[in-house]
Structure formats: C-alpha cells, structure tokens
Amino acid sequence: MKHLISVKELTKTKILEYIEKAEKFKNGNMFYEKCKNRILVNLFYEPSTRTSCSFQTAMIKLGGHVINVTDKFSSVEKGESLEDTIKTLNCYADAIVIRHPQKGSVQIASTVSSVPMINAGDGNGEHPTQALLDIFTIKTELMKFHVDIITENRENIVVTFMGDLKNSRTIHSLIHVLCLFSKITFVLIHPKGLELPDEYIKLLTERNNTFITDTDISFLEALKITDVLYVTRIQKERFQCEGEYNSMKQEQDQERYIIDANTIAFCKEKMIIMHPLPRLNEIHPEIDSDPRAVYFEQVKNGVYMRMSILEDMLS
Ligand code: NCD
Fold first, then answer.
1. CB within 8 Å of 296: residues ≥ 6 apart
2. What is the pTM of this model?
3. Distance between CA atoms of residues 288 and 277, nearest Å
4. Which atom of ligand 1 lies at the shortest distance from residue 232's CA?
C-alpha cells in the first residue's frame, strides 16, 4: 500500500511525474471523475488553512468527497489514542490526510492503517506535499526566465532559505527534493538558535552541494545573488516557552530579516520570492503585487499538485 510520509520515499522520476500531471490539471482547470465515489478524511491535530482547504478542493475537483476531522471536535478530546482514531477512520475512508504536532507520529500511525495515509505535516519533521507543490512552483516560475531546473545544461541556481530553519518542516522536505537536482547553491539565513538541523547539513554535505551560511555572507549580499528566496515565519508553537520565542523574534526584527520595499531593492529582477504561508511580518504586504512574489501562486499550485497525488494514490 502506498503512503506518503516522507519525501525520502520519492524518486526524481516520480516527482517529475507528479509535476507533469499537476501541469495538466492546471492547464485544464476542470472537474474530473477520477476519484468519483471515493472518500478522503482530513484529520488535523494542528491548525491549517491552505493544506486542509487545498486537499478538499483537490478531492472535490476529482469528483470525490471529504470528511473533515479536527482533534478539538473528535474523541481525541476524550483521550482516544492516535492508533484507535486511525483504525476507526479506516472504516469510512479510502485515504487519510493527517497533520500532527509530533515529529514521527504520522509514520507510526500509518503502521495501523489499512488505507493510504498522507503526511500533511508532523511537528518539525516533514511536509512532503508542500515540498512537491514548491518544486512545481519553482520549475514553473523559473521557466518564465527560460531557466529549466531539471536540466544540467544551465547556470547554477541560488536558493536562499530564510527564517526558522530549525522548525520549518516545509524547508526540511524541500531540501531533500532539491538535492535530487544538480547545480544548486543553498544559502541559509536565520536568527541564532534556529539553524538547520544537523541531518540536513549532513545531507547537503554528502550530496556535494555548495552551501553558504550567514557567517559567510550578509543577508543583503545574499539577496543580490538569490534566484529563489524561500521565507518562513518563526514557529511560535514549537518553542518551550514564550520568552525563548520572543528573543528569536526580536533578533529577526533587529537583523531586519524582512522583505519589504527597502530590502527587495537588493534582489535581482529575475528571481522569485516564496513562502509556505502563513506569514507574520517577514514579508510586507506591499511586496504582494511585485511580480517576483509567487506565494499566492504556490497556494494555487497546491490544489493541482494534490490532485496529482490523490489521483495517483486513489484511482
Ligand atoms: C506550513 C506548515 O504548516 O508547515 N504551512 C503550510 O502548510 N502551508 C508553514 C507554517 O505553518 O509556517
């Protein structure tokens, strides 16, 4: 049975297949019957707007149905175990999308499931479907500048990750995906204490990727060379105490790790600014109308990528 728990399970060929299918759905922008009479359960133990709504939209566009379950309004509130909840939902669902605050929990839950499960974020672990919609967006948007991320016959691409590199599961999954492509330089910009975890540094090193940290380059210098800027918020819910969060946030604000009219002036003409959203103050709304800002395009692409994934798993 197919689950989607980690991007580590995906080959480059599979990812390109998902992208190709998502492109077709995007260009057709139609309703289909590929998941007719199939039922998807969306099980969320953490808040979500985009991931939950885009799985719903994708399933509806494929002709299927969705049941939404949140921890606050289910027997989880009465103390039911994750395993029992999954075994129960197996009686209704053809597939389960799950978001949970504990890293590794989705993998454990999948061992008791008789239907495919999709990880929609496990704590500060992974978020594979976001990484897939992100690579779909990167490919599509760079193509507008005639840069093809898939081929090796091109100049080096600079991808800068900025923000909470320690806790951002979207960055963790995306790094794995990007490591399947060649000629990418990674730049890592973050407040102190929010470094990329060792396992990802190890991965970048093993794959011979060039990476530059903010001890080697200033934020503004990094902006000058960046082709893909991927910004994230500082993840308040992952900190032990409010004080720890406040000090990181203060450092981010002091260092001015913020994209606004002043800092965007340092960026190339041909580059893109991404964010998985929700944002706090790290990208000023005045940037939204700039053609380089593609974060709402990411939201749109999420539907087509999730259609591609659901069709593959369910039909
Ligand atoms: C992200 C997540 O939940 O990891 N959001 C999303 O799924 N689009 C990023 C975040 O919460 O900051």
1. 288
2. 0.96
3. 13
4. 12
Buried b (16+ CB within 10 A) or exposed e, 158-173: bbbbbbbbbbbbbbbb
CA distance 93 to 86: 10
Q: Which residues are catalytic?
A: 50-51, 78, 99, 127
Peptide bond between residue 291 and the one before it cis (omega within 30 degrees of 0)? no
Q: Which of 277, 294, 295, 296 to mutate to test the pocket of ligand 1 (most atoms within 8 A of CB)?
A: 277
Element (H, E) at 19: helix 12-28
d(CA 222, CA 299): 26
Span 164-222, pLDDT tens digits: 999 999 999 999 999 999 999 999 999 888 999 999 999 999 887 788 987 889 999 99
CA torsion 42-43-48-49 (nearest 10°) is 20
Q: Can you tell me the distance from the alpha carbon of 9 to that of 3, in angstroms, rounded to the nearest whole number?
A: 9
Taking the CB of residue 140, how many other CB atoms lie within 10 A of it?
18
Q: Which long-range contacts (CB under 8 A, 24 or more apart) does 106-115 make?
A: 106/5, 107/5, 107/6, 108/82, 108/83, 109/82, 109/83, 110/3, 110/5, 112/83, 112/86, 112/87, 113/3, 113/86, 113/87, 114/1, 114/90, 115/1, 115/90
